[in-house]
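Bug #77: duplicate submission created two jobs. Keeping one. Sequence:
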Amino acid sequence: QVQVVESGGGLVQAGGSLRLSCTASGLTFDDYAMGWFRQAPGKEREGVSSISWTGRRPYYADSVKGRFTISRDNAKNTLYLQMNSLKPEDTAMYYCAAAWYARTWYARALSSDFGYWGQGTQVTVSS
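Kept job's structure:
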């Protein structure tokens, strides 16, 4: 059974930084693309970033490009999202997800590409 667990959320002032972590078990982590998504109250879920199973050529949404960095440590089965220069509009529940299929990645962050989801970690940015 695949389990995805996020951590690292919290409350931060605008301009601050947070690093989210995500561990995935029950799959061969280094064979799966991973992604970060977020959903703010009253809004649709948004793809933030994704990364291939090799860690090369990550994808970023325009809204976070230049501020967020996705990375992975396959030896630790862990995905990260370093978030810098945070803005109040970054406030949301952040979700980590693993792709439906091994060695499949489309250089985008669409929810439909990802089949295994965590419960989310809340990020709140105060102004």
